[in-house]
């Protein structure tokens, strides 16, 4: 079988076989299960995949951040094969198996914090967040939770409540879960207070004073939950001083700090965990949730917390039938082993460096690029119709996404305004492949940029 090296489009898109499968989908799958690219994957390798018609795409979406280790990593494939020949499932709540505590042991060691930790395994990012909230409430004997504007934490009832964006995630799905209060996130490019980062004196951090007077009593708050870098919110990174302020507030009022690392973990930001940057500030979360790239695509997620928080639950209070499935746990152990051995986090830093340098050059040429931001390889471009007004270029962002996939590159949009291009390429991508992808991206941006400003001039 031919090795996948570069994108290659050999048919119309979608190709005839994908078109036939799209008909099957239309007849049998609800439209609410959305998709960005109307092609069907046949096989994947590294940072590329081949569709059923023989077209090859470079993947800058990575299964929404799941494929940090790439498609079909041979060592992970072998680990899953080996486990599958022994047993698929027992349920940790009935019969024990080694992979569960071994993975918990590994995460307790890796996740920042020089204190005793314990880890539970579940199935998805949303399920991890649900359990983090459960544990925070159980431990503190409090009910209220603070989340943020721009947040994404999942699509279950509780996590949908924690999530900020209305469409498509919350629209007409209410009423929502009680006890959740929303604080303004420090989105410095679009400061909700109309201030500049250099001179604001961390105004957003001071808003907690009035928030606790007018919205919720801090003595009732069990936890504050946030993403170290917002994912669906548009890769928004809060200032370091804001993170330090949150920790001080939590310590002052006995509130737990939850870091939702579902998207930012396993090398994506240039560290194994984004909260390692917090640790450099002397800040440690009380609870950390992870998922996505932990097992290379098999469904598993984790909740790691201070041991005393985990032990607050009574026997049987946490767990689930499939939680920490043996196949997924075996895959996760191998993924982490490979990531550590092959210095995946360091590769992420190099990917980010190349992207940011190219993006800075692009910003000089294309007026549509309003902001460039990121950490490690978790990088994004925010597109605007006017750099002064920062009017969101939502339709233009969609056009860039479409133009990219027609030329063999899969990218995703994000942000409350739908005007952010976010990049989650597999961290095993070669520099040659990375630059090919950025070349395709730049051509797409140039095309849309020229159309936008030609129309404005006309």
UniProtKB/TrEMBL annotation:
Cofactor(s) the record lists: pyridoxal 5'-phosphate
Catalytic function, reaction form: (S)-3-amino-2-methylpropanoate + 2-oxoglutarate = 2-methyl-3-oxopropanoate + L-glutamate; 4-aminobutanoate + 2-oxoglutarate = succinate semialdehyde + L-glutamate
Gene Ontology molecular function terms on file: (S)-3-amino-2-methylpropionate transaminase activity; 4-aminobutyrate:2-oxoglutarate transaminase activity; identical protein binding; pyridoxal phosphate binding
Top EC class for this record: transferase
Membrane-traversing stretches: none
SUPFAM superfamilies named in the record: PLP-dependent transferases
Any Gene Ontology biological process: gamma-aminobutyric acid metabolic process
Pathway assigned in UniProt: Amino-acid degradation; 4-aminobutanoate degradation
One family name in Pfam for this protein: Aminotran_3
Record's keyword terms, sorted: Aminotransferase, Pyridoxal phosphate, Transferase
Similarity remark: Belongs to the class-III pyridoxal-phosphate-dependent aminotransferase family.
PANTHER family in UniProt: AMINOTRANSFERASE CLASS III
Stated name of the protein: (S)-3-amino-2-methylpropionate transaminase
Organism annotation: Natronincola ferrireducens
């Amino acid at each position: 079988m031919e090795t996948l090296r570069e994108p290659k489009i050999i048919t119309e898109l979608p190709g005839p076989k994908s078109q036939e499968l799209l008909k099957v989908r239309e007849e049998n799958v609800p439209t609410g299960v959305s998709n960005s690219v109307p092609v069907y994957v046949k096989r994947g390798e590294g940072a590329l995949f081949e569709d059923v018609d023989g077209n090859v795409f470079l993947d800058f979406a990575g299964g929404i951040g799941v494929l940090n280790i790439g498609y079909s990593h041979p060592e992970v494939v072998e680990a899953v094969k080996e486990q599958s020949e022994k047993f698929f499932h027992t349920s940790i709540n009935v019969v024990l198996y080694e992979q569960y505590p071994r993975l918990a042991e590994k995460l307790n060691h890796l996740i920042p914090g020089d204190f005793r930790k314990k880890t539970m395994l579940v199935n998805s990012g949303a399920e991890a967040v649900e359990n983090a909230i459960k544990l925070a409430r159980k431990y503190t004997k409090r009910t209220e939770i603070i989340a943020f504007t721009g947040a994404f934490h999942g699509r279950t009832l509780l996590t949908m409540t924690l999530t900020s964006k209305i469409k498509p995630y919350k629209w007409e799905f209410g009423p929502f879960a009680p006890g959740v209060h929303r604080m303004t996130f420090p989105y410095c490019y679009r400061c909700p207070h109309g201030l500049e980062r250099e001179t604001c004196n961390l105004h957003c951090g001071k808003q907690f004073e009035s928030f606790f007077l007018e919205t919720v009593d801090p003595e009732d708050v069990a936890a504050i939950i946030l993403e170290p870098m917002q994912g669906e919110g548009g890769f928004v990174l809060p200032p370091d001083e804001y993170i330090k302020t949150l920790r001080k507030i939590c310590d002052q009022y006995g509130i737990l700090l939850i870091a939702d690392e579902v998207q930012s973990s396993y090398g994506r930001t240039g560290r194994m965990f984004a909260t390692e940057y917090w640790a450099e500030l002397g800040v440690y979360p009380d609870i950390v949730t992870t998922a996505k790239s932990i097992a290379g695509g098999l469904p598993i997620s984790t909740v790691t917390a201070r041991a005393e928080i985990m032990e607050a639950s009574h026997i049987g209070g946490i767990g689930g039938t499939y939680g920490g499935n043996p196949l997924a746990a075996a895959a996760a152990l191998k993924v982490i082993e490979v990531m550590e051995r092959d210095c995946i986090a360091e590769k992420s830093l190099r990917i980010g460096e190349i992207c940011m340098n190219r993006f800075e050059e692009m910003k000089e040429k294309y007026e549509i690029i309003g902001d460039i931001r990121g950490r490690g390889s978790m990088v994004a471009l925010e597109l605007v119709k006017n750099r002064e007004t920062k009017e969101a270029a939502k339709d233009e962002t969609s056009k860039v996404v479409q133009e990219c996939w027609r030329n063999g590159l899969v990218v995703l949009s994000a942000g409350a305004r739908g005007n952010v291009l976010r990049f989650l390429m597999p961290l095993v991508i070669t520099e040659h492949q990375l630059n090919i992808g950025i070349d395709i991206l730049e051509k797409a941006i140039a095309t849309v940029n020229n159309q936008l400003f030609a129309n404005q001039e006309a």
